[in-house]
Amino acid sequence: MKRRDLLKSALGLSASLVGMSAINPLYANDDLEGFRGPEVPDVNAIKVSDRSYTIPALGSVPTPDNFGMFSNPGFIVTSEGVVVVDTGSSVQIGEMVLRQIKKVTNKPVIKVINTHFHGDHWLGNHAFVAAYPNVDIYSHQLCIDNLKAGGDQFWFDFMQTNTNNKITGTVVSLPNKTLKGGEAIKLGDTTLKIHHFGKMHTDSDLAVQVVEDSSLYTGDMVMRRVANMEDGSYLGTINGLQKMIDMKLNHYIPMHGAHDSVKLLEEGKEFMETIYNQTAKYYDEGLSDFEMKPKIMAEPFMKNVASQWPGYESAIGKFIVVAIAEVENNLF
Ligand SMILES: [Zn+2]
């Protein structure tokens, strides 16, 4: 059984959903056809630097009360138009992002970049396709592959379930262009550099650097939140975060939690190193995951810093299980 299918069955979702066509509008429940989830109230964009904006999430996990807005969409205002980095979990969130862009500039949205395949980063694409039918939507090829293999339906259902169907009306709108990292996109007064550091949070992660602003949208490769490592790699994350630290930029803008200086990356790296290195050590000593857990949670960084992050208590056990799998994998 593939990991994705395991996750599906763990969430009580039917594996038979995989393979449904992505070109049909997807509704969790036929009774909801023709209805639409409620509008998402405005959340003002925060200006991080000259061109780089972020719209803060309404919560750290998706709920009916926060309309499933648990990630931070971003946008970059260039002299040629606006580039959106991640569009939120629904058409309603995408529309709200569009309203915030219009408060800042009259320029059109010319490009959308989805940093990876998790649903809170691309389900809002629908709003941008509706407003700008010719807009280019970019992601890594592996993001498109994942969504076409059933990830699209999985994430639609995940968001519907967690918001009590508030994303109803959202139509899956997949990326239609690919980036693989290493590209420089010149847009008038702004240069965007695209980065892919291999498998970190997923195998499809993209980061977007705004060269003139010394800023970097990090996707979910770092966040002050303990969320989801099931699609990722500890060693890949540690390695990639070091590369981002070495870029020595002024602003790092995550899609969960507040933007910050390089401190954000240093803490993220220490978190991954603590879990991975301690897990490897205790694995060597023959300890089981539940024997490791209290020892790892007693590490100073975990006790003093990571324990303050949303999701820590509920996710730390899962993080250790994923780390054990990676330690075992690296033995053979
Ligand atoms: Zn993610």
Please give a structural write-up:
The longest helix is centred in the middle third of the chain and has 23 residues. This protein has a seven-stranded mixed sheet with strand order 1-2-3-4-5-6-7. A five-stranded mixed sheet has the order 8-9-10-11-12, with no helix packed on it. Helix 7 crosses helix 9. It folds into two domains: 259 residues, Metallo-beta-lactamase, Chain A (4-Layer Sandwich); 62 residues. The radius of gyration is 19 Å and the shape is globular. With 332 residues, it is an alpha/beta fold. The N terminus is likely disordered. The site of zinc ion has 5 residues, from loops.
Task: Give the SSE map.
Elements lengths: L2 H8 L35 E2 L4 E3 L19 E5 L2 E5 L5 H14 L4 E5 L11 H7 L4 E4 L1 H23 L13 E2 L5 E4 L2 E6 L11 E4 L4 E3 L16 H13 L4 E3 L9 H22 L4 H9 L2 H5 L7 H20 L1
Parallel strand pairs: 4-5, 5-6, 6-7, 11-12
Antiparallel strand pairs: 1-2, 2-3, 3-4, 8-9, 9-10, 10-11
Helix pairs in contact: 2-3, 5-6, 6-9, 7-9
The protein binds zinc ion.
Biggest β-sheet: strands ordered side by side in the sheet: 1-2-3-4-5-6-7
Low-confidence stretches: 1-28
How would you sum up the major sheet?
7 strands, mixed
CATH C-level class of the largest domain: Alpha Beta
What is the chain-wise order of helices and strands? HEEEEHEHEHEEEEEHEHHHH
The helical percent reads: 25-40%
Number of strands: 12
Tell me which CATH architecture of the largest domain applies here.
Answer: 4-Layer Sandwich
CATH superfamily of the largest domain: Metallo-beta-lactamase domain
Estimated radius of gyration: 19 Å
Global morphology: globular
CATH fold descriptor of the largest domain: Metallo-beta-lactamase, Chain A
The residue-averaged pLDDT reads 91
